[in-house]
Specification:
Length: 179
């Protein structure tokens, strides 16, 4: 058995995953319809090695057969064009770990900051370059994506801003000619 300092896994200082830190079914996107809804109705955030799609679910539910869990739900899509099964599974494992390390523990927003939990569906779609990116850089990209999502969700969760997009605001602007 090789020493722990050998290889890329030994160079990271990451705590081992506990059973409670795994993604429960309620925190994952599982149905094809959920993924399609995020792709078609959601917004995008692009970075060097991944694309993040996100959609803020309405408060009253989305008309699905089963009621959706509250809070953040995450899904991963890794297409066959990105490599064989081994490479695709490695991408998914690295992404799951980066998300696990990036997300705050459940209930932090509601308990400490006294803020309503925002219902958001997120789909992370990696690019081929994710295989060669350092793990710390990947965690940084995922963290930045969640900051963008949080900023966008709080921006549009303000009363009166629901169902409005930045394009709607641009269309409604009246430009006055400069004298």
């Amino acid at each position: 058995m090789p020493a722990e300092s050998d290889g890329p896994a030994g160079s990271r200082s990451v705590e081992p995953r506990a059973g409670k830190s795994a993604f429960p079914r309620s925190a994952r996107l599982l149905r094809h319809a959920d993924f399609e809804r995020v792709y078609k109705q959601g917004r995008r955030h692009f970075s060097a090695s991944l694309t993040v799609f996100y959609w803020q679910r309405p408060k009253g539910g989305d008309g699905a057969k089963a009621p959706a869990a509250s809070g953040l739900r995450i899904g991963f899509t890794v297409g066959r064009a990105l490599g064989g099964a081994v490479q695709r599974n490695r991408m998914k494992r690295r992404l799951r770990e980066a998300v696990r390390l990036t997300l705050p523990p459940a209930g932090v927003n509601a308990d400490v900051m006294d803020v309503d939990v925002v219902d958001v569906d997120v789909v992370i779609n990696p690019k081929k370059s994710l295989l060669t990116v350092d793990f710390a850089a990947m965690v940084n990209e995922v963290s930045r994506a969640f900051v963008v999502i949080e900023k966008a969700s709080t921006q549009y969760s303000v009363p009166g801003n629901q169902n409005r997009t930045p394009n709607d605001r641009r269309k409604n602007r009246t430009s006055k000619p400069k004298a």
